[in-house]
Amino acid sequence: MEERPRVLSGARPTGRLHLGHLWGVLANWKKLQETYACYFFIADWHALTEDPRKSLEFRTLIEEIVMDWLTAGVDPDRAVLFVQSWVPEHVELHMVFSMLVHLSRLLRMPTLKEHVASLRTEEFRGTRKGELDRATREAVQHVLQRYPDLVEHPDRQSILTAEAKQIFLQTLKDAVEDEEEELSYGHLVSYGRLGYPVLQSADVLLYRPRFVPVGEDQLSHLELTREIARRFNRTYKTRVFPIPKPLLTDFPKVPGTDGRKMSKSYGNTILIGEDRETLEKKIRRMYTDPQKIRKTDPGRPEICPVFQLHRMVTPEGEQQTIAEDCRAGALGCVVCKGMLAERMEAFMAPLRERRLALERERDTVWDRLREGTRKARALAQETMRQVRAAMGMPEPPA
What we know:
The chain has 16 helices and five strands. With 398 residues, the protein is mainly alpha-helical. The protein has three domains: 6-106 and 190-253 and 362-391, 3-Layer(aba) Sandwich (Rossmann fold); 109-188, no CATH class; 273-358, Orthogonal Bundle (Tyrosyl-Transfer RNA Synthetase).
């Protein structure tokens, strides 16, 4: 496997994954493992930057996410799967790199600014929740009074209220993110969160990969990693670290049951291997084109979340028929959802079967992680041997 170009990617332990992860990240990993020497890891140290108490849940969270990886087709015989905290060299290399990065560089990281803005928004939400809820209701009621035909169904009114609240919070977040004073809310940011990008760079460079699969929004983190690799090599006149290149990935936007992006924070997800009854219930309640109230109303499949999921699981010819009938007012939303439920169940059944089999063999999941971690650590130890040699540091006793 090691003759192939090396690729590294990871994910924080968040528990059960949904179809957004399946069609976004995991489908890409499944392809990569056929061509590259892939290292996929559980970034449990990173999860602590959100909430240090998360460690109390790690055993369950790690188990759940790895079972979803295996269910999706990530193969431990083709890729190395391991746990970040089980390889102590991650922390050691992080310490080395932390001496090569200035505070001002970390404060310019777009993800840190976004994180600070989110925390400030949450702080506002917590201290002024009543005002926010009241302002949201008043705004929505004003719109409904002025445009009474805009939304007729009560469920859609609640969705409109939720979206208005999100818009208010996003507007506040955008305003905070644009502020010049970057340390005004330093009491919300831990030392560990500030150094998150440096640990991420250590995660990558420890395995000296040639490529790192990333989306456009992650390029700033990879660029810092490339900077650190160059700085280490230049400082110690060595070539320990290759400069990793991005494997740009276009992750599809998978709609949730309420029309927004599928996300746990929105509570609009369909889980990998979802049971049939829950799956059908979620699809029946899905948000559709707000202008298509009756079956005979012409619909707009291009904006309908139900149709977007049809694109994922329904044959192309049938998709075209659904779109044409929807636009012509010949297909109602109830029937369209029923068709989606059938197609989704056919897609989900084998995934559900694989996942249930894994749940009956949980010890095997941990065995594969331990096996992968031994392989990962062997490479990590070799990297740190080269790092210490380049720095002129004596080797620790065996």
